[in-house]
Fold:
Amino acid sequence: MVREKAAPTATSAHEAKDRFFVVIVAVFYRKSARVLIRRASPSPLSRGIFTFTESVFHSITSRIKQIVIITGASSGMGAEFARQLADEYSAKQEAAEFWLIARTEKNLERIAEDVKRDGITVRLFPMDVKGMEGVRKLAMHLGVESEVGDYRIATLVNNAGFGTYGTFEDTNMMRQLDMIDVNCTALTGICGICLPHMGAGSRIINVASLASYLPLGNFAVYAATKSYVLSFTLALRAEVQDKGISVTALCPGPVSTNFANVASNGARKEVRHGVSAKKTVAHCLRCARKGKATAIMAFKWKFKAFMSRFVSKTAGARFTYLYCKRPSQPEAGIEG
Structure:
């Protein structure tokens, strides 16, 4: 079968420069490069250039250890992130080393068995990431890894966190300060120490909450910490997107995890109207792969997030204080 050759067309110097620029971009920004090349020229030559540069990119990065870090990995959404990311890397036949971080070693060992795949190695870090001390501990482990050899943090999931039910006045003050240390200080610090080891194609997922969108009575400190997480994540995304690093905030409503049992200190055993953690995480990973800024799965969650912009913050806080009571007992614990 003989294929007809397209008639040659004149190419200006300006167009040639544009195509050369696209080729360079392709080496560093694989996703956007595909779109750019199609716009520059749909010819087989351009597609071949993209395929070549992508293979070069994969060849370079595949020689460097790829690390996936997940905090709060012992249960709930953290465990789901570990399982589903392991499936993702295994399906792509990409080797990776998973760093699973949580306080409970026994639970980590159980999750590690679920995560093991061909090409996937697992390291367990039974440690508390709370506050500056937790950040220092992880920074020390990263420093030791740097002495061993080159590595790249391919995915970071900041999932560690917890909440407390009840009014600010009636909730243990030290527990609320611990919440700020875990939900805000640790998440910020871990992003800071991991960013120098990330590059084009790396991604960060910070777990915020639907509570990010309004001040909530009976949930005051938790909602405030998650509002910080959302704000910080969107700003960080703006700062690093030119480097090809994806940053996504997961903003779920009620999810079927141990959250309610921890937040209420046993007064409420299960999250009411909770959505599957498996489905929530799967949706989040799809959003992250598409480079989206936020991941909000259920329609009712999206509706509430959208409508929050039309609700007075003072009215929202007062309404939730009066009509959204949550059972609680003193001395709520920490999840993760």
